[in-house]
Amino acid sequence: MPWFVWLLAAAVLGAAEFFTLTLVLGLLSGAALVTAVVAGVGVGALGQAVAFAVTAAAGLVLVRPLALRLLAQQPLIREGSDALVGKRAEVVQEVTATHGLIKLAGEEWSARSLDESLVIPAGALVDVMEIEGATAIVYPRELLP
What we know:
By secondary structure, the protein is α+β, with helices and mostly antiparallel strands. 43% of the residues lie in helices and 21% in strands. A hairpin with a 2-residue loop joins strand 4 (125-132) and strand 5.
């Protein structure tokens, strides 16, 4: 088969991958592109078929599972209020199980204690354990008296 037919097949498969996002047609498109290069060098039809089969199999067996695993992972960078979890804050107004105020990342946040039995006094340092809406759930960094 002429090299330009393989190139056309690669373009069609690449366009189809754009709409399906399965990572299968894109890998087949890459295999067709490799086969277009092999055909352009002058290898016969049997060599082209072998090149396509080997490249497609390698992509589907080796590359696709790795790509799917990487896509399924959570991003390493946390954004917005999620980035505040684990940060240190200072209590501005006594924090109880129902209300309180802390200074977190230069801003004042409403807060409540993770442990409902704790009352954290003003001036104490706390760790932000989670964020629920506009309220920081905190726990003291040091033991309270």
